[in-house]
Recover the amino acids of this structure.
């Protein structure tokens, strides 16, 4: 897991920036989908890559960067919701916080809410698989690799999830 | 709100097009690079090492200074490594104090992860100095084990009971230390059961069983159908033969009679 040779900071930066270039949009979309708030999504995306940068600086060798980055983002989203539960909407409004002002374009947000509303109605197991399939256009193997589960299981979940979605459409 | 398939696809397409702007990306990278990464512990006592731990809040820095005065050796303790006489002060007094003075839950969790990463860098420094021995390994292990226990007590794990950042640090830590001192999380120890993977395996097995049962049923239905078809064919064959025989007799009998046979 850990390399014995000293960390080359230039090499580290190049690797980090190539990961950032490849996955920053993906993670931003994921955070926006999960939070429906542009500013929060920007913060969570930045935090995700900050943690990645910190880990890389400790010498940790990241074998599956996509899986690793997704997992950090997922943990941060969970953290965000746990933290935001403590702050009521009333308290935020009293402080002059306008939820809509921080949201992205209204058309995008309403479409996003529609999409999330339908996917989140499904059981937990199907949600991320369907999101990755329909929004990120990821293949079965890629989803399996990202989630760290078998391709067979992903395949089953996609098929069952699709059926359940069609039941919702009906 | 009810959604139809067309609307669903439209929403998915719209989200697919969402991207960060170049300005947002540059700002992010700049912020990330400006964030100070915890420095490797140094044997030369540095006041910045200690103060950086407490930079979260001015009050914390003030309290930390108070502790420094009280302990007297706080400076040196902050930069100490496992095996050093002041290491105990660092991990048993300074770090728990800093943690106790962090009130924001997210910052607390981040600090706990940082502490575990600090254990890794301490070991890396010892290895570089070739100054690692059984006593220092044991001291590091006790500190790291407490960090893991504290991490497990906090709610930073996802629904599958995993925090990949913690796991990566533990794996790196274990690669640096002798086997008896390897760290293990509850998931690794198997205390948390059934793990999500096991559940998934069970689900997969269930799917396979359903598939096998269905295959058996289908085979049975096909076999029954084939038997029925075979019987039908036999019956039809005998009926047709019978009818042909009768027709032949219908034709041949009058001829035979007319010829006087």
């Amino acid at each position: 897991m850990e390399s014995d040779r000293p960390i080359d900071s230039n090499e580290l930066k190049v690797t980090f920036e190539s990961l950032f270039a490849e996955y920053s949009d993906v993670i931003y979309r994921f955070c926006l989908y999960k939070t429906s708030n542009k500013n929060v999504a920007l913060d969570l995306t930045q935090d995700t890559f900050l943690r990645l940068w910190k880990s890389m600086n400790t010498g940790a060798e990241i074998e599956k960067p996509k899986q690793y980055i997704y997992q950090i983002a997922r943990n941060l989203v969970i953290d965000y919701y746990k933290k935001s539960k403590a702050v009521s909407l009333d308290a935020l409004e009293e402080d002059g916080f306008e939820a809509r002002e921080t949201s992205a374009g209204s058309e995008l947000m309403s479409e996003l809410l529609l999409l999330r509303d339908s996917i989140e109605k499904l059981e937990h197991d199907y949600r991320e698989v369907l999101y990755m399939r329909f929004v990120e256009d990821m293949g079965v193997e890629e989803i399996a690799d990202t989630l760290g589960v078998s391709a067979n299981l992903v395949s089953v979940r996609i098929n069952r999830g699709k059926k359940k979605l069609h039941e919702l459409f009906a | 709100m009810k959604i139809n398939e067309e609307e669903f696809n439209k929403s998915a397409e719209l989200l697919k097009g969402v991207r960060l702007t170049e300005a947002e990306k540059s700002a992010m990278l700049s912020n990330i690079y400006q964030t100070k990464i915890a420095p490797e512990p140094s044997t030369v006592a540095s006041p910045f090492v200690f103060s950086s731990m407490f930079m979260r809040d001015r009050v914390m820095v003030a309290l930390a200074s108070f502790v420094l005065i009280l302990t007297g050796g706080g400076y040196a303790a902050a930069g100490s490594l496992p095996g050093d006489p002041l290491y105990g002060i660092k991990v048993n007094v300074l770090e728990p104090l800093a943690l106790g003075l962090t009130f924001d839950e997210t910052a607390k969790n981040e600090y706990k992860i940082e502490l575990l990463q600090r254990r890794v860098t301490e070991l890396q420094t010892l290895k570089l100095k070739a100054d690692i021995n059984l006593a220092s390994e044991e001291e590091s292990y006790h500190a790291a084990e407490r960090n893991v226990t504290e991490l497990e007590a906090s709610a930073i794990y996802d629904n599958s009971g995993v925090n990949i950042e913690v796991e990566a640090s533990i794996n790196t830590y274990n690669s640096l230390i002798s086997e008896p001192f390897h760290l293990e999380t509850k998931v690794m120890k198997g205390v948390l059961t059934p793990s999500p993977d096991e559940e998934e395996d069970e689900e997969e097995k269930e799917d396979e069983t359903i598939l096998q049962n269905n295959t058996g049923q289908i085979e049975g239905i096909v076999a029954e159908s084939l038997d029925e078809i075979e019987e039908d064919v036999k019956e039809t064959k005998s009926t047709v033969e019978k009818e042909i025989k009768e027709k032949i007799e219908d034709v041949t009998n009058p001829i035979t009679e007319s010829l006087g046979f």
Remarks:
- Residues 35-192 of chain B form one domain.
- Residues 26 and 32 of chain B are 10 Å apart (CA to CA).
- Chain B touches chain A through 56 residues (CB under 8 Å).
